[in-house]
Amino acid sequence: MTSTSIILTWSPPTAVVPISYNINRRCRRVCESSVTSNSETSVSSPHTSTGIPPYSQCGFDLSGVYGAELAYLITNYLVTTLSTAPTAPVGDIIFSSVESVSMTVSWDEVPCNGRNGPITGYYLTYTNITSNTSYTVNITGGDNRMYNLTGLILYTNYTVSIIPYNYNMNGPARQEIQSTPDESKPSIATDLTLATILASSTISYSTETTTTTTALTTPLTHRRLQAWALGGNAQVDFLTNNYIHDSGVGIQCKLW
């Protein structure tokens, strides 16, 4: 027996020997329920049944041909073909809880028609693209499809490669790239409450943690203000510690 074939042998019945033998075969991959059937006539022992997917369970019926009549000699003889290396990679790789020094990696299972046996583990390799430093983790257990990466470097690109295996036979890898964020960057101002205002007015904006009201006639610290005089074409950038002096002039503002 191999991963794709099964050799069947039998002895003829002692009473009356059939003229010939027929075999009916029903096979399905162990990981799925759909069944394929096949019939072979005028076979003899030993007989090699071929064209079976790896790691499939097959049921065989052996019948003897006596002229126009058939006699079932063996029914539903069960055999499972051997495993072989996976021929398909894992499904989608998913990144979650991505932070500056850690992230969680999970992945979808290898499709049934590419497993060729029970998946017994995965090799997960993550590589710092900048330094070309790699680390490999052996994750055992076919249903254990999640791993937390820690000790990463902020604002860095990482490749994550996952190789499935069954009984030390490796399958193809799937690879994705994910970046860690730079949490030291300032937050972006949002929710500007007044789009068109006077220079003597105040504006209110929000960050991720606070809401601030700033008078346009005071220094703008830690923020940049873009302002356009209404009806004009000129654009003015007011940087940190700059003042707006056009009192009474309508201004349209964008703050970040």
Automatic annotation (TrEMBL):
Start and end residues of each Fibronectin type-III domain: 89-184
Repeat found in the keyword field: yes
PROSITE patterns per UniProt: FN3
Alphabetized UniProt keyword annotations: Repeat
Span of the signal peptide: none
CDD domains tied to this protein: FN3
InterPro entries named in the record: ECM_Regulatory_Proteins, FN3_dom, FN3_sf, Ig-like_fold
A UniProt-annotated Pfam family: fn3
Annotated protein name in UniProt: Fibronectin type-III domain-containing protein
